[in-house]
Specification:
The structure holds 2 protein chains of 2 kinds.
Chain A lengths: L2 E5 L2 E2 L2 E2 L1 H11 L3 E7 L3 H10 L4 E5 L10 H14 L3 E5 L2 H14 L3 E8 L5 E5 L4 E7 L5 E4 L14 E4 L12 E7 L13 E5 L9 H11 L2 E4 L1 H5 L20 E5 L5 H4 L7 E6 L12 E4 L2 H16 L1
Parallel strand pairs in A: 1-4, 1-6, 4-5, 5-11, 6-10, 7-10, 13-14, 13-15, 15-16, 16-17
Antiparallel strand pairs in A: 2-3, 7-8, 8-9
Chain B lengths: L2 E4 L2 E3 L21 E3 L1 H17 L3 E6 L5 H10 L3 E5 L9 H12 L6 E5 L10 H9 L2 E12 L2 E7 L3 E8 L2 E5 L11 H7 L4 E4 L1 H4 L7 H4 L2 E8 L7 E4 L4 H11 L4
Parallel strand pairs in B: 1-4, 1-6, 4-5, 5-11, 6-10, 7-10
Antiparallel strand pairs in B: 2-3, 7-8, 8-9
Helix pairs in contact in B: 2-5, 3-4
Classes of the chains: A alpha/beta, B alpha/beta.
Chain lengths: 317, 259
């Protein structure tokens, strides 16, 4: 079977869930090979084997982490050049999409981003225009480069014993132009990442003030959910911009999306419409968000949210 | 510091976007076109850098005739001149083809920096800035939420999922900006009048040295096989809170085996 490369997205060696999803997906398309770039492979090793990587390419040169995007594209291009894989799968994160972009130019290959499924012949399913259309598209030139959205394939283990190949990298000067001087974390708490989370609880204008996001956080924590925010809330400075869900923010597709105090303007819907189950709490029965919901509560969020949080905590026993 | 701002005209967010049955591309004719919102931040950032460091701001747009409306808006905000790459052969170009054509057009404009929005609100691929950096050899400074220029050194705060990275490069550089970077200005009446007299250069494929075989539907690296409008969602259950809204919601979550 043909080799399918999967770029491992990891945080200090711990593969992100989307990596395990991509390995699972790659198994249905060919023989998955993981490409691990950066330090920390020893931490990642067991998970990559458990999810069926037949081979792992490891590029651990220290310089790789000191520059953004271009080095990873260069490593991938080098491996594609020697291995001639059937396709390259990359997580559809902001970084993943940019790596795919540079790789596409290097290989003069087409690139499909934001796939929610990949089938025979590497035909990709996409959900575009804020979920208004489903599209089947494919790469028609070069090696298919496909970025796949998190939560597209349930990760399933299939233990393997991958062979390992160290990739020696000599970065070009072109790959060393954008130097990272400092990495700053503003992350609060141990919540899951927005685009990877199974459940997202988002707050909007109805919260009225930054301090009321504590209610959303508590509700989210009772469900082990990530916290999102509408544009109204991030514009007002109530919650960080990187948590914004919508057309000019993140697109999420969790199992459950709960919109609290969010009217559901098209700007917001474009970022969450493809969520599997949608719940809304809003005091305005005419709010457009109710057109999308599986379950909606018309009421005061300051009453409903504490009550549901308490109910969930109580059920945990 | 001479700056090119790449600007795209996109369908207004509040209009329904449609794919055409004939060639499976976005129908741009029947909808109101507006400047891609994220590019407004790019124009504003360029104008601020010009105000601080001098130089010229040139708008670069690839798109059909009507995209000139968006070019005029950027000029009325305060950009100095514009280049419009317009040719029927460009219709249907995907990201790979578009980045090729834009890189060719950039070659005709003297510049130190290119600034653009991180993505367009229609395609939302977020790949053009990185592709332009790869094609032109300029440094890639993408997802900037803050830009500082000191001589030929450009430093940005690159927004990440968990915070930000401080990234530095020498010009020439391609800078893509996120929404929170600034507050774009509205064109003044004076600006709107002045825009009508600003130089606007139109480039065809031949003018920009773009090979026709590398653009358009046939020159693209991807193709759309089929598409379907998403069926409307079935109406859900909506309850009015009578003091037990939270309880009912918990019951729903339990029925879905979420809790």
């Amino acid at each position: 079977m043909a080799e399918v490369l999967v770029l491992v997205e990891h945080f200090e060696g711990t593969p992100k869930k989307v990596t395990l999803e991509l390995l699972t997906l790659a198994r249905s398309l060919g023989e998955p090979s993981a490409v691990y770039v950066g330090a920390g492979y020893d931490t990642a090793k067991a998970a990559l084997a458990e999810y069926g990587a037949q081979k792992v390419y490891i590029a651990a040169d220290a310089d790789l982490d000191n520059y953004i995007i271009a080095p990873k594209a260069e490593v991938l291009a080098q491996i594609v050049g020697s291995a001639s894989p059937a396709a390259v799968l990359i997580p559809s994160s902001p970084e993943g999409k940019e790596i795919a972009a540079r790789l596409a130019v290097k290989l003069d290959s087409g690139v499909v981003t934001d796939a929610v499924g990949v089938g025979d012949g590497f035909v990709c399913d996409q959900s575009i225009f804020g979920g208004g259309y489903t599209v089947k598209s494919q790469v028609s030139k070069g090696t298919p480069i496909i970025t796949v959205r998190p939560n597209s394939t349930p990760p399933e283990p299939a233990p393997a014993t991958p062979s390992e190949e160290q990739v020696s990298v000599s970065l070009s000067d072109a790959a060393k132009k954008a130097k990272v001087l400092e990495r700053v974390s503003e992350k609060k708490g141990g919540r899951p990442e927005l685009t990877e989370a199974e459940i997202v609880v988002s707050g909007g204008r109805g919260l009225g003030a930054a301090e009321h996001f504590a209610l959303i956080e508590k509700f989210a924590d009772s469900l082990g959910a990530a916290v999102g925010a509408s544009r109204a809330a991030t514009d007002a400075g109530w919650y960080p911009h990187q948590n914004q869900v919508g057309q000019t923010g993140k697109t999420v597709s969790p199992q459950l999306y709960i919109a609290v105090g969010i009217s559901g303007a098209i700007q917001h819907r474009a970022g969450m419409q493809t969520s599997k189950t949608i719940v809304a709490i809003n005091k305005d029965p005419e709010a457009p968000i109710f057109e999308l919901v599986d379950f909606g509560v018309v009421g005061d969020l300051f009453e409903v949210v504490p009550q549901v949080t308490e109910q969930i905590e109580a059920r945990k026993g | 510091m001479n700056i090119v701002v790449c600007v795209k005209q996109v369908p207004d967010t509040y209009e329904e976007k449609k794919l055409s049955d004939a060639d499976k591309t976005l129908d741009r004719e029947s909808v109101e076109g507006v400047m891609n919102e994220l590019d407004e931040y790019a124009v504003e950032e360029a104008l601020r850098l010009k105000e601080a460091h001098g130089g010229e701001v040139t708008i670069l747009t690839m798109g059909p005739e009507k995209a000139v409306e968006t070019i005029r808006k950027a000029l009325s905000m305060g950009a100095d001149s514009a280049v419009h790459v317009v040719d029927p052969a460009l219709h249907g170009s995907d990201a790979l083809a578009t980045s090729y054509a834009l890189a060719k057009a950039l070659g005709t404009i003297e510049h130190d920096l290119v600034i653009l929005g991180v993505e367009s609100t229609d395609a939302r691929m977020s790949v053009i800035p990185a592709m332009l950096a790869e094609r032109t050899g300029a440094a890639q400074l993408s997802f900037a939420r803050k830009v500082e220029v000191d001589g030929s050194t450009v430093k940005i705060e690159r927004q990440t999922d968990t915070g930000y990275d401080v990234v530095e490069a020498q010009t020439p550089a391609i800078v893509s900006v996120v929404e929170k970077i600034n507050e774009p200005r509205y064109p003044s009446f004076k600006g709107i009048m002045a825009a009508k007299k600003k130089p606007l250069t139109t480039l065809t494929l031949a003018d920009a040295g773009i090979e026709a075989s590398n653009v358009g539907l046939s020159g693209s690296g991807t193709s759309v096989a089929e598409f379907a409008a998403r069926p409307p969602k079935q109406a859900g259950t909506i309850v009015k809170d009578e003091g037990d809204g939270g309880v009912k919601l918990a019951e729903f979550l339990a029925s879905q085996k979420i809790i």
